[in-house]
Amino acid sequence: MRARKQELVSDDLKPFVCGILKEYREKYNYSLEDLARALNYKKNRQTLHKYETGSLNIPYEIFFDIASIFNISSDVFSEIPMTREEKELFEKKMIKNYISTMSGTKNITARGEKIINTYRNASYEPITKQCELSIRLLDDSMAPVYLKGDRIYFRKKDVYNNGDDVVLAVKGNVLSVRRIYKSQKVVILQAMNPKYQTIVAGVFSDNMILGKVETMSRDIK
Fold this sequence. Notes:
The longest helix has 19 residues, at 84-102. The protein has two domains: 5-102, 434 Repressor (Amino-terminal Domain) (Orthogonal Bundle); 139-217, Umud Fragment, subunit A. By secondary structure, the protein is of the alpha+beta class. 33% of the residues lie in helices and 23% in strands. The model is unreliable at 102-106 (pLDDT under 50). The chain has an eight-stranded antiparallel beta sheet with strand order 1-2-3-8-4-5-6-7.
């Protein structure tokens, strides 16, 4: 059965995707037969050759399977020039693929899937062989510690301590970071950038926190 057009990388993106496939296959010294074997022969080497040379449009599913095999960072994808519509489709397909390929392992939980389906700047990102939840910061409320556009990796904790940087929903369906300080009466969620209001909450639960910041990455321009 032929794949629907929306399931295939577009003609505009094909040259960039082909280049990524060839670069990483050669980087890891894989032959096309090696790659077909790593894919459990979902596609044979002849078809993979057509994907790599651009004579055939590659399905998103296969592209992200290959990205997983070679542990290709999502930062590589961010360098591909795309329209807003293409970017939204690309990210949607990438998130869906991470969930489907990781489902059933200890790294993916129902809670994690709910987070990325609820918050538009949340996604799964691989870190040192693990799949961690992450967000892309959409504001500069934590500057100069974290900047707009930084990718923040976080993990759920049983306890959050004073001075921890935590991820939580500050506005609508967007996640952000705040530094937490607790007392017996109130919880302070501090923005580092003085342009943004520090939140003082009289009623607050650790369940409102989605996780503690573990690390971050920043694109160098």
